[in-house]
Amino acid sequence: MAMNGTSMAPPVRTEHPSTPEAGVDAISQQGFTIKARKLPILKAGPIEEMTEKLGIAPPEMIFGDNYVEISHRASGWSINFNAYDALDLVDKTGNEMLKVAHSKEWQTSRQVDSILQHHNEEITQVIKPFDWSYTTPYQGSTPPTPAPQFSPIPSTSPTFDSAIPTHLLRLPDPILFFSEVLLYEDELADNGISLFSIKIRVMPQRLLLLAQFFLRLDGVLVRVRDTRVYVEFATGEVVREWTAKETEYDVVKGRVEAKLRAQGVRDVDVEMGVVMREVGRVVEFLDVVERKVESVKLPVG
After folding, report:
1. Which of 2-11, 86-95, 228-237, 244-253 has the lowest mean pLDDT?
2. Is 295 exposed, middle or buried (0-12, 13-18, 19+ CB in 10 A)?
3. Are strands 151-152 and 177-186 parallel, antiparallel or unpaired?
4. CA-to-CA distance for 133 and 135, rounded, in angstroms?
5. Which helix (H) or strand (E) holds 97?
6. Which of 177, 182, 298, 175 is nearest to 240 (CA)?
7. In this structure, are strands 77-82 and 67-72 parallel, antiparallel, or unpaired?
8. Which of 78, 68, 82, 69 lies closest to 149 in space, CA to CA?
9. Is this model's pTM higher than 0.70 or not?
C-alpha cells in the first residue's frame, strides 16, 4: 500500500473474528464499492502483535479490525483507512513530541511524566521514544501503480479552494449509506484526548468521507488533521483534501469564550467546557497551518 505517497509494508493482520467480512456494512454505487467495518476493541493477543510490529505502545483503545474503504473495480483504485497504517505514521523518534511540547518547562512537567509513565506501565519491554500524542499525518492507504494515482492541485490553481463542491453536498439528497468508525482513542492519562475517527456518507450521485485526527492536550494545544475524500460517481472524479489545524490551548479558550459572550450565553464556563471537548465545534477556532489538495480521474463506463 502507498500511504501519503510512500510505499509501506503490508499492515499486520489483526482480525480475530472467524470471517474477514464480520461487522462489514457495504454499498455499491455506479462502479464504486464502499465498505465500513465496526468491531469491538482489540483483545490482548492482537494488541501485543501490533505493538511488536509498530514498535510503539498502542493507544488505550484500539479498534484494529475497523476500517473504511472506497474501491473502484474497473480501475483497481481504492483508498482504505485503518488503525495500523495510521499508527505506523506516528513519529517514532520522539522529535515530534518536542514540537508538541512548545517549551522545556512542558517537557519536564509532571503532566508529561504521568502520560509516559502511564504507557510504560502497559508494556513489559522498553520501547523507544515516540510521539505519545499519536499525531499522524495519515491520509489513507492507496494501491501503487498501475492503479491510478492522485496528482496535486497547486495552491495557485483557481480550483484549489473549490475542489470539493460544497454546494452539491448541501443539496437535500437522500443518504443511502452512513457510517462512523473509530480507529483509536487515548485519554493521555486524563490530560486530554487523542482519537482518530472516520465518517462517510453516500448519496445517489456522490460521496464524502471525513477522516479526522483530534488532539486536545489540556493547557497546551488543540490540534486537528482532516482528510476529506470526495467522489463524483458520474464523472469518476475523486478529490482528496488534507488540512492541518492547531492553536495553543489558552488561545483557543479565549476565542471560544469571546464568541460565547458575544452570543449572550449565560453559563460561559460550562458551555466552554463542552465546546473544548467536541471537535466539531472547537475546530472553527483553530488556525490552518497546512493544506493540500489532490485529485484523480477514474474511468467511467
Report:
1. 2-11
2. middle
3. unpaired
4. 5
5. helix 95-101
6. 298
7. antiparallel
8. 78
9. yes
H or E segment to which residue 252 belongs: helix 249-262
DSSP-based three-state secondary structure for 285: helix
Phi and psi at residue 211, in whole multiples of 5°? -105, 125
Residue 299 CA to its chain's centroid (Å): 28
Q: For residue 174, how many other CB atoms are within 10 A of its CB?
A: 7
Helices 249-262/268-277 angle, 10° precision: 130
DSSP codes of every residue in 4-42: TTEE-PPPP----SSSTTTTEEEEEETTEEEEEE--PPP
Distances (CA, A) of 162 to 68, 153, 230, 237: 25, 11, 12, 14
Question: What are the distances in angstroms from CA 9 to CA 53, 59, 66, 76, 301?
Answer: 11, 21, 19, 19, 33
Assigned C-alpha cell, 72: 473502484
> pLDDT tens for residues 196-206?
999 999 999 99
Q: What is the pLDDT of residue 21?
A: 77
* CA–CA gap between residue 235 and residue 300 (Å, rounded): 7
C-alpha cell recorded at residue 21: 467480512
What's the rounded Cα separation, in Å, for the pair 151 and 77?
14
Count how many Cα atoms sit within 13 Å of the Cα of residue 293 in the half-sphere of its side chain: 15
Cβ burial of 61 (10 Å; 0-12, 13-18, 19+) is middle
For cell 453559563, name the residue. Answer: 267
Q: State the Cα–Cα distance between residues 90 and 19, nearest whole angstrom.
A: 29
In contact, 195 and 214? CB cutoff 8 Å: yes
Look-up: residue for cell 483497481? 76
Q: pLDDT at position 1, please? A: 53
Residue 157 per-residue DSSP state: S
Name residue 159's beta-bridge partners: none
Bridge partners, 181 (sequence order): 198
- Residue 280 three-state SS: helix
